Amino acid sequence: MEIQTHQEIDRGLCGDPVELGDGYAVVEMTFPERTRADATGLVHGGFVFGLADYAAMLAVNKPTVVLAAAEVSFKKPVLAGHTVRARADIVSVQGKKHTVSVRVVRGDEIVFEGAFSCVVPERHVTEER
């Protein structure tokens, strides 16, 4: 399946797609040193969120898809150098709204979970109305 959204995203900060199918996506990432938040090597949560968000966008895989809301939970710390895998699955579609469940794991450990509300407008959000 061809990627139809977020085609210019920096994969060094948001991960590499490893699987893409009808209603799901898997994105993998090894967090680089530049994602560290402190001397312990803790990765800033925004980077983990960005990976999960990118996986959600790919699960919907429409050119105009955007994030409207998210309810997330950080379960375990992620350190620079850790490799994680985000799996996103569409759980419901109501008109233009897609609810996507995302789980990020490091090996067998869940490090992040979330429900993402994605919307597919008719036009790109940056287009003038």
How does the major sheet shape up?
6 strands, antiparallel
**First-residue to last-residue Cα separation:** 31 Å
**Mean pLDDT, all residues:** 96
**Total strand count, please?**
6
Low-confidence stretches: none
CATH topology label: Thiol Ester Dehydrase, Chain A
Tell me the count of domains.
1
Helical run tally: 2
CATH architecture descriptor text: Roll
Q: Radius of gyration from the CA trace?
A: 14 Å
Provide the spatial order of strands within the biggest beta sheet.
1-2-4-5-6-3
β content, as a range? 35-45%
The ordered H/E elements are HEEHEEEE
Oligomeric state of the chains in view:
single chain
The chain-level structural class is: alpha+beta
The CATH C-level name is Alpha Beta
The percent range for helix content is 10-25%
According to CATH, the homologous superfamily is Hotdog Thioesterase
What global shape is seen?
globular
